[in-house]
Specification:
This protein has 17 helices and 17 strands. With 482 residues, the chain is an alpha/beta fold. The N and C termini lie far apart (67 Å). It comes from Patella caerulea (Rayed Mediterranean limpet).
Length: 482
């Protein structure tokens, strides 16, 4: 069958905004054969924002030939992995270094592909223009139901076309837009997408930069959305009035079943707003508000809300400064007969013996629940001769004014960055006397080398403990044994 390709391009190199309003049909563009070199086109007049139409072979449901030809005209090397897997329902191309041009060729092929149902192109740095290619493809492709665009630096230029596509797309059900540098100014694009889209059930907007202003755009749209069941807004900047706005919208949504608001700095105001979600929403099954600086005083409000909630099954509030009192409040909240909670995750929150006793008694009657928390305060011990040294267990908590913050910081960083062994080696390198002891300054130096940020309060706590036991050095030998 004849293989003729028409290139329909719009001039945008000098004025991108003007180009968006230009409509150029195939009748106004040159028709060239697939043998004609790409460099014969006047590239001063045309950019690479092209649509390639092919007299499709009735048996080519993958877009294979179109992809090969597109790569030829774009002067890029075809990705063999894509050619090998473009006929499979799940296509995973994470961190393939596609870039804008590479994704352009892929998008052209997927425009007529009927085989791929799930597309994962995380971490390909396709940028805004690449987001536009994907958005244009999804206006025609009616087969892809799952799309992962995380960590692609889409920014504002990518947010606009993606959201425009979402307003008309009727097939996407799962969409991951995590880590794309979206800011408050981009939130306006999501208003129409969230209010008009009637298909997306899972939306991940984590690791972006939505703050207070963005929350006032996103909030009402989230409240009005009638299809979202799983929303991830973790790792943004939803604080104070922004936190309240988002929580109010979630409270009023009648469809959401799972919500993640971790790592946002909700604080006291956000903590009370979380209590309102639990009190008013009888649909949400899983709620995560971990790492949000929610204080103990907010825990009492959350506790009262838990007493009357008969829907929530998983509640995660890990690594918040609730203390033993806040932990006890939450335990009392789930003790009511109406509670159906199956998981109460308070990892990283210190408790005391009174809490342990109350939990033990509670679990005698409630066998179908899991409760996680940190060590009791009595477990925060310092081992070693009191007059000679301070032994720090880097896999157990450390006594301080705010228990365990130093060690939790170190442990979490080592796990996340996978540098535990390297940190050991660094500690040994600094230890010139080979006695497994370091001064506070030397210990802090090792932490800085590992890019572990210890606050001034952390350093003061370490110094105060050493002074209390008349010690000047930190013994890190136990850290070396595991």
């Amino acid at each position: 069958m004849a293989s003729e390709i028409q290139l329909a391009m719009t001039p945008i190199e000098e004025d991108e905004e003007k180009a968006d309003d230009v409509s150029i049909t195939s009748e106004t563009q040159p028709s060239i054969s697939s043998d004609q070199p790409f460099d014969t086109l006047n590239q001063n007049e045309y950019d690479t924002d092209l649509e390639m139409e092919k007299e499709a072979d009735e048996f080519d449901v993958t877009g294979r030939q179109l992809y090969i030809t597109a790569c030829k005209h774009l002067a890029i090397v075809p990705v063999s992995y894509f050619l090998q897997h473009m006929q499979e329902p799940t296509l995973v191309m994470k961190y393939h270094g596609l870039g804008p041009l590479g994704i352009k060729a892929v998008a052209l092929a997927l425009q007529i592909n009927t085989q791929v149902l799930s597309l994962d192109i995380e971490g390909n740095w396709i940028e805004g223009i690449g987001g536009k290619y994907i958005a244009n493809m999804l206006k025609d492709n009616i087969y892809i139901t799952e799309l992962n665009l995380a960590d692609n630096n889409l920014g504002s230029k990518g947010a606009a076309p993606i959201c425009e596509m979402l307003a008309v797309n009727t097939t996407l059900q799962i969409l991951n837009l995590s880590g794309n540098n979206f800011t408050d100014s981009d939130a306006v694009y999501f208003v129409e997408a969230l209010t008009e889209n009637r298909r997306v059930q899972f939306l991940n907007l984590s690791h972006n930069r939505f703050g207070e202003k963005g929350a006032f755009f996103l909030g009402p749209a989230i409240a009005e959305n009638e299809t979202l069941e799983d929303l991830d807004l973790s790792w943004n900047c939803l604080r104070k009035r922004g936190a309240i706005e988002i929580c109010d919208s979630i409270k009023n949504n009648a469809r959401l079943k799972k919500v993640n608001l971790a790592f946002n700095g909700l604080g006291k105001e956000g903590g009370r707003a979380v209590a309102d979600i639990i009190k008013s929403n009888s649909i949400i099954l899983e709620l995560d508000v971990s790492h949000n600086r929610i204080p103990a005083e907010a825990a009492s409000f959350i506790s009262k809300s838990l007493e009357g909630n008969d829907a929530l099954k998983v509640f995660r509030i890990t690594h918040n400064p609730l203390g033993p009192g806040g932990a006890m409040d939450l335990l009392k909240g789930i003790a009511s007969d109406s509670s159906v909670l199956e998981v109460l995750d308070m990892s990283g929150i210190e408790v005391d013996k009174a809490f342990i006793a109350a939990k033990t008694e509670f679990l005698e009657t409630r066998k179908n629940i899991e409760i996680f928390h940190s060590h009791t305060l009595e477990d925060y011990v310092i081992k070693g001769p009191p007059k000679s040294k301070l032994r720090i267990l880097l896999n157990t908590p450390l006594v301080e004014i705010e228990p365990s913050s130093v060690l939790n910081t170190i442990n979490e960083h080592c796990i996340e960055k996978r540098i535990r062994i390297k940190l050991k080696e660094r500690l040994l390198t600094i230890d010139k006397n080979n006695d497994n002891k370091l001064s506070v300054a030397e210990f802090i130096s090792a932490m800085q080398w590992a890019e572990i940020c210890l606050s001034a309060g952390d350093v003061s706590n370490l110094t105060a403990i050493l002074k209390t036991i008349n010690a000047t050095e930190i013994d890190f030998s136990i850290f070396l044994k595991d």
